[in-house]
Amino acid sequence: MLVNAEQQWVRGCRGALSAGAVRWLETGDRGTSSETIFTVLTGLHLINEEEMSHPLDAWDFRRCCLLLDSCPELAKRFDNMRAVSTEWDALIGAWYSIFALMDSENPHWRDRVGTLIRTHQRISDVLIGIADPTQNAKLEER
Length: 142
Fold this sequence. Notes:
- This protein has about 140 residues and is mainly alpha-helical.
- The chain has one domain.
- The chain contains eight helices and no strands.
- The N and C termini lie far apart (about 55 Å).
């Protein structure tokens, strides 16, 4: 059986990464935004800078939360993601409220069952608020 380059890379990083990080790399539910977090906070390049992204919807957000659950050492430094972009800064500012909404909307979000419609809308509202700061005032009134 051939081993792909990423599997070889993960094996080579075992000593530098927590068991949770290795497990997430090998079997985790990954997307561009969660790989961006991993790349920025570990310095190990899963993706290049041009590919980096913030969560665009509730399912991206979910994958980021799964990474942070798997890697508490990254969760401790998560605030460092604010410097990546204005989008990351805004999302991190609202992260815990978005997470609380996701958890109440769908307590089984970790299993990828059900829907996250209100969570998706909240993420969209936060991102729209960057382009139109008057949106943030409207959101706070809700």
